[in-house]
Each structure stands twice: as structure tokens, then as C-alpha cells.
Amino acid sequence: MTDPKLLFKNVTLGNITLNNRIGVAPMARISATSEGVATNQMVSYYTSFACGGFGLIITEAIYTDNKYSQGYFNNPGLINKEQIQAWKKVVDSVHQAGAKIFAQIMHAGALSQGNRFIQETIGPSAVQPKGKQMEFYEGKGLYRIPREATQEDITEVINGFVDTAKRAKTAGFDGVEIHGANGYLLDQFLTDYTNKRTDKYGGSTENRVRLLVEVSEAVREAVGEHFTIGIRISQGKINDYNHKWAGKEKDGEIIFGQLGHAGLDFIHVTEYEAWQPAFPKDEDTIVTSSGLDNSNLSLAALAKKYGKLCVIANGHLEDPVKAKEIIEKEEADIITLGKGALANHDWVNKVKKGELLVKFDEEKVLRPDVKIKDFEVLL
């Protein structure tokens, strides 16, 4: 095995310094109270990763308002004082164990399958999401057809992200990650087949990325220049795993280029295998404005090239060799682990010591006799 020491070097992310380049990816959980308050179980869960050596922890998705944003029953929010105080316990414990922690803030949009505030869902257009609700998050049947968001709804969405980012800062988080991936609301606006709008938010890729840019810019203005913020981007979705951007490299140039000027400190990209080409090479390869054929570049590499920001890469990087290589090639600055972290809360410490890593046991996790609150599932 090649020397993985590069993974353990300090790295600057916005205004903070991480003691290594290895983070815990955001993973959906439903272990908060029914009122969306973080629990002592969650304090222990996140602290265990910090004790295991991870330099950065990104939380599960946190809903942003008391209307349409909540995605699942018992997932946490950050919309009131009680929730702020509960998250502060998590943050303080993680800090005491030596790690940094970001709050991932999310609006579920049309993929909401459990919302204590309202039953109706909203989306960019009245398009029924593909697939079925996830039973391991207590959903059942097809997704509802969302109501097309009005301009007033969009303004409320932006305000929700802004207010939640400010509350995250109050709670002591080191930064926030805006969830623009995996098929949730911001990604619904970005996706061609879920966004059929004819206004400034629909049509071209430049228009479809507009809401992601507006949210990013508004959050930056609200929290100030010294608070670290970033966005998570993916092609695949929880309900459409194999989706690829229709414009391929050109879409990547537009999306990452626009986000690179939106006041962000980082872009966090997730793919099934982070090192693989973002788009399979074919006869219709698009030559970008730079004149380069980027058919073999990973999504992380495209984000680095066009976003010109710090890039976090996620996607089956639990092999230390793969993790080191993607950083060594300068396609990413930091890597995050999902299943690898769940199987090894002490992944960093184990790799440092040259110890064997435990393989994630999906069959055990998905046993029907195991209740959802007893495990975590990677999105």
C-alpha cells in the first residue's frame, strides 16, 4: 500500500484549519425527537467519529423552516432556540474531542415523506418524483405530486436557508453545507426533468442553477465573510441513482463556474465512485470553452477546474489508497466517508496505525428485525 500520510496533513477550509483531510459524510438519520431536537444519542454518535480521528464531521440533513422543508419524521431541525441548544451540546462535544463540525442544511421539496408541519409538498414544477418513498425512513408508496413553488415560496426557501445558517453559527458550528444534491429541492431546480418552469428559474442550465447560486449568495451575506460555507452537489439522486447531467461537461462548466462565484468556500461532490469519469466517453463528447476534452475527468476534478474552490470528494473512498490518490491528483482537497465511516468510526486512527478496516455489512444493516433508529443509512 502506498504511504497515506498525505491524508493526515492539515488543510485550510474557509477560515478554519482541519487537522487532516478526512471527513464524515452527511448521512440521513431519524434519531431526533418528534419535535426535531437533537438527542444525547446524537451527541454520542457524532463524538465517536471525532474520537476516532476524523478532522471534519458534516451532520445529517437539518430542516430549515416550519413549512415545507422537513423530509422525514424524527429528522432534526434548526429553527428554534430549543433546537439550537440541543445542537450546541453536539458541537461542544465534538470540539472537545478535537474535530470540526459543519451543519448540513436542507429543504426536501418534493421528496418530503414525513413533515410534522404540513402534508403538501412543493417543487420547482408539479412533476411527480420517480420511484417510491423509502420504507426504512418510514415512507410508503409513491411520492406525492408537488405544488409548483411560487415566487413567494422561493423567497421563503431562501430565507429558511439564511436563518438556519445564522442559527448554526449561534450554535457554534464551524460552518454550514447547503444541501444541493441527491434530488432534494435545490437539486430539483437544477434537474431538467423535474424543473419545467418557464421563468428565470427554468429552462437553460444557467437558469436552473440560479436558485442554488441565490441561496449561496444570501447565506454568505448573512453569516459574514469569516464563516465557512459550502454546497453539496451530485448527479444521482436517492430516487434516480443513475442520473447524469444532459449537457455533460458543458453543464459541469456552467454549474461549477456559477457556484464558484457565489461566495462559497467549498464544493462537496458525491458520486458512486468518486474517481470515475463523471460522463462515459462517447462520440458526442463536448469540447468546453477552454478547448479541452474533459471526458475522463471525475466530477470532483470538474468541480476543481471550473469552481476554482476547495473540493471535497465523496464516493467509496474508504480504501486509503483511493482516498490518497484523488487528493494526490489534485482533484480534491478533502475526502469524506459514508459507509466506511459507519463501519469504522475510528477509520483515521486505524489507518494511521496500519490496522485492518472493517467492511460495511449492508445485509446486517438492512435486517428486517433492526429498527431504523438503531442504524444509519448512507444516501
UniProtKB/TrEMBL annotation:
<dbReference type="GO" id="GO:0016491">
    <property type="term" value="F:oxidoreductase activity"/>
</dbReference>
<dbReference type="InterPro" id="IPR051799">
    <property type="entry name" value="NADH_flavin_oxidoreductase"/>
</dbReference>
<dbReference type="InterPro" id="IPR001155">
    <property type="entry name" value="OxRdtase_FMN_N"/>
</dbReference>
<dbReference type="GO" id="GO:0010181">
    <property type="term" value="F:FMN binding"/>
</dbReference>
<feature type="domain" description="NADH:flavin oxidoreductase/NADH oxidase N-terminal">
    <location>
        <begin position="7"/>
        <end position="354"/>
    </location>
</feature>
<keyword id="KW-0285">Flavoprotein</keyword>
<protein>
    <submittedName>
        <fullName>NADH:flavin oxidoreductase</fullName>
    </submittedName>
</protein>
<dbReference type="InterPro" id="IPR013785">
    <property type="entry name" value="Aldolase_TIM"/>
</dbReference>
<dbReference type="Pfam" id="PF00724">
    <property type="entry name" value="Oxidored_FMN"/>
</dbReference>
<keyword id="KW-0560">Oxidoreductase</keyword>
